[in-house]
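Format notes (please read before filing issues)

Several people have asked whether sequences and structure tokens are stored in separate files. They are not. Every record keeps both together, in the order shown below: the sequence lines, then the token lines. Line labels are part of the format and must not be stripped during preprocessing.
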Amino acid sequence: APDAAGALSFEVKPVRSTRYRLEAVGGASPALLVQVAPRLMLSRPSPAEPAVLAGTVRPRLPGGVVAIDRRKGTAWVTVGEATVDAAGAFRLDFDALVPAGAYRARMSATDGFAAATSLVVQVSG
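Then the structure lines:
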């Protein structure tokens, strides 16, 4: 119900990108798109696997493709792609130690989700 000034608010927790609008007798608001992106987490290489960049996607999006980018100057260059497994995990294997640099994981918009990018992970050589 509206407050004394006629304003109202409500909380929604969409699980996919969704459009919302308010309807009342005599009219309706324009639709508002609320975009939902998956959460991408990229981890530094571990001592047990120094040639691997791995991470997770939540919610799990099996079969999704994650691009791994490395910063080169002010641009990002894709160094490989990984497929998300049934557990929501992905990994990119390098031929040798992961080169020093800044890396991120990225997914394009898919299956009702907006595009997503992980936080930047710094790998030291």
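For reference, the curators noted about this record: The CA atoms of residues 57 and 94 lie 20 Å apart. The chain has a mean pLDDT of 92.
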